[in-house]
Automatic annotation (TrEMBL):
InterPro entries: High_potential_FeS_prot (IPR000170), HIPIP_sf (IPR036369). This is High-potential iron-sulfur protein. Residues 1-26 form the signal peptide. It comes from the Bacteria. Keywords: 4Fe-4S, Electron transport, Iron, Iron-sulfur, Metal-binding, Signal, Transport. Specific class of high-redox-potential 4Fe-4S ferredoxins. Functions in anaerobic electron transport in most purple and in some other photosynthetic bacteria and in at least one genus (Paracoccus) of halophilic, denitrifying bacteria.
Amino acid sequence: MSNRREFFVQLSVGAGVVFASAGAMANGPMVAESDAQAGALGYKADASKVDKTKFPKYAAGQNCAGCALYQGKASDAAGGCPLFAGKQVAGKGWCSAWAKKA
Ligand code: SF4
């Protein structure tokens, strides 16, 4: 019996951790274009402002909302991205790691 009780205690602690990290992902601050990581990846919150000379691979219509790494829904204004842990990128944003959503 005591084992069973322990199992439930661990289960609820584990679920709490998962929930907390999902919440942080959804509510993190927006990535600033001035962030070092954003600069390195050529991130722009507005994909139409991408420096096409520097990033010739950018094609109109590409944005975070349509990127395989975007963790928000395609319709979300902002969402998480594993390249910017704990922060949010704009659905209309873009960076050079963009990959077409399968
Ligand atoms: S990897 Fe994708 S979702 Fe993340 S910032 Fe770049 S384009 Fe946006």
